[in-house]
Amino acid sequence: MKKLIIFLVATVFSGSLLAASLGDLKGQGVIGELPNGYLGLIKSNSEAQKLVADVNAKRKAIYKKQAAKNKIALSEVEKIAAKRNFQKTKAGHYIKVSGKWIKK
């Protein structure tokens, strides 16, 4: 399971340009991490919406691949990823807990 988590984090956050854009948008309070392992929009922004959709599609593909590889349900991989994403979220960035966006 540790290898799965490390792989997910490394793969999802690879690519410095993408990571920089995500970091900027997270820092501006435009996007945040959801409890299902995906990104969510906090503020309406067409550019951010496209980036969120792209990142979420890539995350889902990675999650599906890891679920198949480890012979576990997609929902289990999403839970593992969400937990790790929440832990990795920087102070001042947002996570969604119990239906509400909160600043970490």
What order do the helices and strands come in, and which of them pair?
Elements: H1 2-12, H2 16-27, E1 31-33, E2 39-41, H3 46-70, H4 74-88, E3 94-97, E4 100-103
Helix pairs in contact: 1-3, 1-4, 3-4
The multimeric state of the shown protein is single chain
* Strand order in space, largest sheet: 2-1-3-4
Number of alpha- plus pi-helical segments: 4
CA-based shape: globular
SS-based structural class?
alpha+beta
Q: Can you summarize the main beta sheet? A: 4 strands, mixed
Name the poorly predicted regions: 13-17
The number of distinct β-strands equals 4
What string, H for helix and E for strand, traces the elements in order?
HHEEHHEE
Beta-strand percentage range: 5-15%
What would you report as the Rg, rounded to the nearest angstrom?
13 Å
What fraction, in percent, of the residue positions are helical?
55-70%
> Taking all residues together, what is the mean pLDDT?
87
Cα-to-Cα separation, first versus last residue: 26 Å
Task: Please sum up the structure shown.
This protein is 61% helix and 13% strand.
Describe the fold and architecture:
The protein has 104 residues and is of the alpha+beta class. The protein contains four helices and four strands. A four-stranded mixed β-sheet has the order 2-1-3-4. The longest helix has 25 residues.
Key terms for this structure?
104 residues, four-stranded mixed beta sheet, globular, single chain, alpha+beta
